[in-house]
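Same chain as my last thread, 466 residues:
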Amino acid sequence: MSADVSHNNHYQYEPNLSNKANVCVLVGHSIEAITSAVVLASLGQRVHLYADLDILSQQLHQYGFEHHLQALWQMYEQQQIIVRQDLPDKAEKIIQRYETISHEDNHNIEARYNNSGRQTVALYWLFLNSIKSIWLDDNWITAFNHSHQQTTPLIMSGIKQLGYVSSLSSRLQRAWVYYIPFVFLKDGDAYSSMLSPSLWLLGEKTANSTEHLEILKPIMQQARATHHADISTIEFARSSIMAMLATRVSFMNEMSRLADSQQVDIKQVSHIMGLDERVGSSYLQAGWGVGGNTLPAELSKLQHSSQAHSLEMPLLESVIHINEDQKELIFRKFWQYFDGFIDNKTVMIWGGSYKSGSGRTAGSAIHPLLALLWSYNIRTLVYSDKAQGELAALYEQQPLFKLIASPYHQMNEAQAIFIISWSPRDELDIVKINQQAMPVFDAQNALTRTQIQQLVGDYRGIGRSN
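reply #2:
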């Protein structure tokens, strides 16, 4: 592995391991934990990442489409700048590794650590969604409260119910406790999106204490927007941002159904709406809904929070309902097109990721679509560039499921094409599609109006009449 690895930004960090006695201790196996480990290593820090090693290996494999992140991870592991460690059953076992000293040595901790070669902890970073099933809150909080180094910053990240992280922070006796939500992380571009975050939110237990996070200063300086507040406020802001994004998508999907009845192209309407600076252009694309792990998890946690306080949130309930129902809409268009005579057909499905550029299929419309198609004994030929491995692991035993190496392979066997996720960087070959003159059911509205007009066969999109 070459050490000359650069990222997409205009600047490049070279690891400066001048203080080899200090390490950043991370706990978790999520993509956020992996990305943070690589970014910290790129900022010149040594990282010890504690995780369930089997799950961590699975995550690294599943996120193989994050090519730059993978290359850096491998390089830093080979150089032992990042060291993966098996997560013990108790937090105190990690703390004891770095803080085992006798009471009489408490007055000279720094000298003892430096003289013995023991590595001291520059910061702890806990990824709550990774540790919940192994560490009980009471146990790990007690362990950190008994730590000899109460001045070591402790960061928490993860999606939890409103007020959960704030409650944890109040039970921790140390002052330098922080919460960092990963609202900026982009699936498919995780490394660069963390080095240059679009929005850096920081929750502080102790106000105006960012000087204790000197290690993260380069990230904060590169952020396009930042905001620091108390942890409760940042939790609420995180949840509100995600719920607003899901609401915008759900609104456009609801409008797309009306657009179908009015012979209007919702994609053109979305463009017009985006020209109004009061609206903006982000998250206005109609399609099959939202997927992935973050937005659905956020909606679920927000729903639980409202129920816990006996509050009705009809808008939130509608967003969740629209999002789930939208995933089946493209199948209904398929069923209606053939007047219900769909049994025993063969169809092609292009894409499977929850969004283009990602290799993850969590929350993707492909899952309900496959289930519905198979219920009619329909054979499915699936091409999904980055998600091939994940789909193979999920459905390799399904006889009606077959992965194909090219989107245009075996087209002569199919009676319809479904598009679930397609990267705009990959030009669709309309000439090859027209060789079979079959209907295209476009759940992502991937085709342009010009491409639709060039089709020999019929076209059904979301809010786009043929």
